[in-house]
């Protein structure tokens, strides 16, 4: 490979990353109801460049969410594989909340309402299933409060989006403290009080995922 | 008052409300770094109408945050006045998180970084002071975990912004469940584990509030 082709390839990759970054930001801020033109403008690339990389809007949506879901998948499957289910749950909460502090589009990719491809919908259903299994085992071990539902985990992930903060180190510190508090709220404890009705986050995600694409 | 003047007054009030609503939305989404022109456009009123109601940008900022801070103030002072400090703290958490579910600009008004008037800065300092006093009493009563800091309450309020949701009833349900979980995480319990370093939210708010205006 000559220096020039290497340079061209790195330009192409940079454009692709920039488009995906812009798409994630816009999808995160406004949901999936964003035009290709908006994404191109936000990324600072021409429409031709955008359509060369992503011929259809669905290609762009899938690609924008692909990396985040893959990361989330490995976090959940690794957590579920730990012998101690409470340590598994802790690992899932800590890693997902921290990841969200580093990449604000992450949770949006997981819970985004709206059309996603069949593949991503199956991916999400698999994740929710693995989380539910982990929760069952942690309850059976007497570590997780009996009235915990997987929606509570999604609630904490959604909430982590609100932590914000411009400084990356402060954002990460806030995420860690928040994750530790969330874990203490999930823990089975004699002092826990009765919770109000669960929020219906999982249902909304699955309904959104089940829409035809 | 004739029907016509009554109609004019209601028009004027509607414009004012629309401008304040637009200002809160933009301040909430982008912080205080928003131009008067942006606010007028977002509110769908002419610049003349905007400047007639709010001669300076500072007038607009103060007015946009005034109502929310007044509400927050009564919530905190009423909570702090309850004889049982844990019930006081619970009331503050539940009411502020629920209020935020109804009015998404509420927490932004409380924690917005950036310039606010001396009056609002004093207001915020007074609230933080009252919350700190309540926390001290709840710790002394053995109900609040000893490693709780007021930053944790602000962290929960910031996080509540992330709950989102388009349906008001679902949003309120999620807020209530989240507030109950947050309270259980604050509760003194034998099963609580050591938390990571506190996030420095209060410091950031006070630094922001102390800037000259």
Topology of this structure?
2 copies of one chain form a homodimer.
Chain A: H1 3-30, H2 36-43, H3 47-53, H4 57-81, H5 85-102, H6 106-111, H7 118-140, H8 150-160, H9 168-186, H10 201-210
Helix pairs in contact in A: 1-2, 1-4, 2-3, 4-5, 4-7, 5-7, 5-8, 5-9, 7-10
3D structure, described in words:
The structure is a homodimer of 213-residue chains. Chain A is built from ten helices and no strands. Chain A is an all-alpha fold and 213 residues long. Chain A binds chain B through residues 107, 151-152, 155-156, 158-165, 170, 173-174, 176-178, 180-193, 195-201, 204, and chain B through 107, 151-152, 155-156, 158-165, 170, 173-174, 176-178, 180-193, 195-201, 204.
**Helix/strand order of chain A:** HHHHHHHHHH
What is the level-2 CATH architecture name of the largest domain in chain A? Orthogonal Bundle
Contiguous helical run count of chain A: 10
Number of strands of chain A: 0
Biggest chain pair interface:
A-B, 41 and 41 residues
Mean pLDDT of chain A: 83
Indicate the CATH class of the largest domain in chain A: Mainly Alpha
Radius of gyration of chain A: 19 Å
Q: Which word captures the global form of chain A?
A: elongated
Number of domains of chain A: 2
- Oligomer designation: homodimer
The main pleated sheet of chain A reads as: none
Structural class of chain A: mainly alpha
The CATH topology assignment of the largest domain in chain A is: Tetracycline Repressor, domain 2
Strand content of chain A: under 5%
Helix content of chain A: over 70%
**How many angstroms separate the termini of chain A?**
40 Å
Catalogue the unreliable spans of chain A. Answer: none
């Amino acid at each position: 490979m000559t220096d020039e082709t290497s340079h061209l390839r790195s330009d192409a990759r940079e454009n692709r990353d920039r488009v995906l970054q812009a798409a994630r930001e816009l999808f995160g801020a406004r949901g999936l109801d964003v035009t290709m033109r908006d994404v191109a403008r936000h990324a600072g690339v021409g429409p031709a460049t955008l359509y060369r990389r992503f011929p259809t809007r669905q290609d762009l949506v899938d690609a924008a969410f692909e990396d985040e879901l893959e990361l989330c998948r490995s976090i959940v499957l690794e957590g579920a594989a730990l012998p101690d289910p409470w340590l598994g749950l802790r690992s899932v909460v800590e890693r997902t909340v921290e990841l969200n502090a580093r990449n604000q589009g992450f949770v949006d990719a997981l819970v985004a309402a709206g059309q996603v491809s069949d593949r991503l919908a199956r991916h999400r259903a698999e994740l929710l299933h693995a989380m539910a299994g982990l929760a069952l085992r942690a309850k059976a071990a007497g570590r997780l409060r009996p009235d915990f539902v997987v929606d509570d985990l999604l609630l904490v992930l959604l909430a982590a989006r609100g932590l914000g903060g411009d400084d990356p180190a402060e954002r990460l510190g806030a995420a860690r403290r928040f994750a530790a508090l969330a874990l203490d709220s999930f823990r089975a404890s004699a002092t826990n009080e009765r919770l109000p009705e669960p929020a219906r986050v999982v249902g909304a995600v699955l309904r959104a995922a089940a829409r035809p694409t």
